[in-house]
Specification:
single chain; 131 residues; alpha/beta; Rossmann fold; five-stranded parallel sheet
């Protein structure tokens, strides 16, 4: 089983970008669940933005569900949520520990299940999506 980790990457700190992804990867790997972390391909001269996007879509196609950081709106996150929902038909597990949910439109339409904390979302994945 593989989980693709979706969330803001532009205009956020390295800790915001990678902190929850590293924690999720460590937790899920302990359950023998793989993760695809799009931050492993930083923007550089080696890959164009189109190549990075194409590689991210391949990762999503090779995933069984996606885990989404819903704390902050971003175009990339919105596009990946819609791709997972409309094209791949993947379960979408989200989490948002902020006081005001900024992605409320996605909660009603696309997100399979949303949680208040990352720990609750990870626990749900291991309890209900593992064999």
């Amino acid at each position: 089983m593989n989980v693709y980790l979706v969330g803001p990457m532009d205009n956020v700190s390295q800790e915001y970008q990678k902190g929850w992804r590293n924690r999720s990867t460590e937790y899920l790997n302990a359950w023998e669940i793989g993760t695809f972390d799009p931050t492993r391909r930083p923007h550089s001269d080696d890959l164009s933005e189109k190549e990075i996007y194409a590689l991210d879509l391949i990762d999503m196609k090779n995933s069984d569900l996606i885990l989404v950081d819903l704390r902050m709106p971003s175009w990339g996150t919105a596009m990946e949520i819609m791709y997972a929902y409309e094209v791949l038909k993947l379960p979408i597990i989200g989490w948002d520990d902020s006081e005001v949910t900024t992605f409320s439109v996605f909660l009603d339409v696309t997100v399979t299940r949303a949680f208040k904390t990352l720990d609750e979302a990870l626990d749900h994945i291991t309890r209900f999506y593992t064999r």
